[in-house]
Inverse folding.
């Protein structure tokens, strides 16, 4: 049976302002591994056949000189650039605009590199083996019947929080295991409870610890690209007076795809524990968590030594 091609698209164009540097290439593993190394390692052992990094063009050499040279001998690696100028014709970018246009724009910038089914992740998050296994099984089983069946891997919110401040999480509302709404919220523990403050300005609400949230591990077929493109045209028309700070985000695109009945989005629970670095103070707990998994035999001491 011919092996099915699957791409891992890694979003690495953000500069980690709260962390204080380019955290995508910050070593956390005992042999200098980045969190991205562990994602690629898990992707390879669950059947992915290519990796595409979406980065800022000026960071290309940094990526090639670090993680690129480590993994390109094991799996094909390509690079796509998130450029601020890759937007609809006629849109004038304000001089004050410095940051990229957001996650949906980042994914669209990789469209010329991807012709197969793919999974999107953040470069600075650790997702875990079970998450990749779950996503790969969905791609192999479900998308063969419909090109517009997408998914996201959902984590228990309790397992995604930091003790060092608030975080942004996409809270999943579902019906029959399918996403009906993704509420982007600022989340933090307050007096022992998990509280969510929707970024839309709607009232704050309490969240059960087992509520599933999106950590931007998204499962797509290439049919998402033309839909994002149409949504982007509409986004720039809507935000014509707000181009200094607005963001074109993939949760908004997914919500629209569902309401337009363009696609379904299945929420796939995972037993994996998410690990991430939002603040500099998160570094030590992440290093300890990786060390524990290595001691338990989940990962080798040197990730690529025997590869």
């Amino acid at each position: 049976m011919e092996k099915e091609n699957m791409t891992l698209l890694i979003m690495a164009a953000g500069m980690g302002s709260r962390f204080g540097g380019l955290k995508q290439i910050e070593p956390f593993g005992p042999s200098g591994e980045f969190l991205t190394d562990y994602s690629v390692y898990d992707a390879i052992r669950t059947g992915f056949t290519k990796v595409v990094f979406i980065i800022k063009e000026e960071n290309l050499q940094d990526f090639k000189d670090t993680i690129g040279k480590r993994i390109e001998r094991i799996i094909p690696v390509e690079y796509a650039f998130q450029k601020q100028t890759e937007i609809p014709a006629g849109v004038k970018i304000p001089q004050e605009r410095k940051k990229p246009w957001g996650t949906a724009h980042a994914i669209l910038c990789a469209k010329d590199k991807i012709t197969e089914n793919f999974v999107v992740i953040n470069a600075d998050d650790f997702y875990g083996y079970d998450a990749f296994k779950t996503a790969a099984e969905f791609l192999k089983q479900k998308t063969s019947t419909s090109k517009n069946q997408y998914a996201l891997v959902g984590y228990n919110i309790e397992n995604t929080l930091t003790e060092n401040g608030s975080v942004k999480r996409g809270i999943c509302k579902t019906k029959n295991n399918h996403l009906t709404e993704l509420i982007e919220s600022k989340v933090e523990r307050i007096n022992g409870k998990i509280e969510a403050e929707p970024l839309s300005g709607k009232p704050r609400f309490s969240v059960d610890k087992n509520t599933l949230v999106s950590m931007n591990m998204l499962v797509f077929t290439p049919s998402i690209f033309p839909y994002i493109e149409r949504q982007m045209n509409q986004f720039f028309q809507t935000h014509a007076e707000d181009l200094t700070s607005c963001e074109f985000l993939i949760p908004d695109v997914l919500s629209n795809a569902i309401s337009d009945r363009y696609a379904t989005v299945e929420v796939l629970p995972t037993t994996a524990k998410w690990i991430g670095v939002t603040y500099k103070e998160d570094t030590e707990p992440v290093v300890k968590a990786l060390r524990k998994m290595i001691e338990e035999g989940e990962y080798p001491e040197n990730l690529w030594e025997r590869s």
